[in-house]
Amino acid sequence: MSQxxxxxxxxxxxxxxxxxxxxxxxxxxxxxxxxxETVVDVGTGVGYFLQAILTAVGPEGxxxxxxxxxxxxxxxxxxxxxxxxxxxxxxxxxxxxxxxNLADHVFVANVFxxxxxxxxxxxxxxxxxxxRPTGRLTLVEWKKEETPHGPPVEVRLGRExxxxxxxxxxxxxxxxxxxxxxxxxxxxxxxxxxxxxxxxP
Length: 201
Fold this sequence. Notes:
By secondary structure, the protein is of the alpha/beta class. Helices cover 26% and strands 25% of the residues.
């Protein structure tokens, strides 16, 4: 069983020092999110990336902030608010109450390593369900090495491990790059999507 982030520690998520090693604006630029797109931010927490995503999609786009913690979503509502452009969704891990083929982009940061290993493929398949045929999935995760911040190394996932899970869930690997000194970004698309690449490690 993987350890989940305790919502009682939410202040760690808004520590100004965090932006020094995981800058939300820079990360969102790396995702390639475009104006007018519909983005689902799964595990939005206190909305650390939400404002940067909103800026990227612009006034014609829509962002869904999804989390299993209502406490976290309440804090997002206080800071960002909820409107036709920002929709907050209380969810179960493997059952996100959104319709199929809704999103151009699903964004998941620092969440996947917390999913129970036995449920990781099912979790990715649920994300896949949300994506349009040409949609993209972006995962941001801690590098599997010792860093001054973050979870224990033994619970982190290397790129090859995540790529294997993606393959099992029906995704195609697109690319991977550093998202900061302690994080990496991995992007995938649907098999029937427009992007090439072989998902196999």
